[in-house]
Amino acid sequence: MKLKNHPFIFLSSLVFLVIISFIFALLTGSGNLSSQELLSLLNGTASPLHQSLVFELRLPRALAAFAAGALLSIAGVLMQVLLRNPLADPYVLGVSGGSALAALLAMLSGLNTLWLTGSAFLGALLSIFLVFSFAHSKGSWTISRLLLTGIILASGWGALISFVLVISPPEKIHGMLFWLMGDLSYDRPLLPSYLILLIGFVFSLSISRQLNILLWGDLQAGSLGVDTRRLRGTLFFLSSLLTAGAITLAGSIGFVGLVIPHLVRLIIGTDHRLLIPASALMGGALLIIADTLARTMLAPQQLPVGVLTALIGVPLFLYLLRRSQ
Question: Of 196, 179, 187, nearest to 103 (Cα)?
């Protein structure tokens, strides 16, 4: 049975995968819980220790992981359409660099989590503004100019990040490096990221038919009434906003926005009406599982979740690349 012909079965399977990943995250940790103890939480008869462990520590972290994975996956889908490149990922335009630099400066200044979150988001927005401004400077807006501007800006952000790390006191470098590699251990507000996810998801679905037409090329899309210039501008801002939301929540996590859209396309095809929700569900489930493994594999020591996504993503992407050839 080909799943391309049965999208409802595939989407239902992904919903089930998300539920299983949440249960796995809630049960697994330094102190494992049994299924009966988890059910007692739903009945309200669990001990205060278990309630605190699940509702204050594990559940918020799992929710943050799901939001970050879904944001990166949708951003990856949109970025690959925008740049006409299946190897594009949400970080290719330098958004992560601007966000990371602003967050590191907030850490260096000793600001609290709220200021860290706001600084990371403002840094991402600044990077978006700079890329879009320079890409439009004295000429027409083109994909190659946008990509080149993003790569150059990302290199500049990288140099400044290295400078900040060099001048930082030793006691703060560990937290900075963790954040740069992806870290979900901070207590960050979830509401802004879920609002961005909701807006991005709904808006992406609303233009999914236009995205399908855009795959045929600009000439065919234009002849069918699609304003390709306006659509590409929308894709740029929307994918950058989604990336900013993910970075603000979890730091820099690679390969999720690159690998997940590839994997979903191979299974369900290129129809964005299905590709967008399927990528969001799979990306969210994958990051929940990766984060749970990151905090339990070497317990009590925790690994940055970006390390796990890279270890999973590199061989998986190489396999997908070989299969596509």
Answer: 179
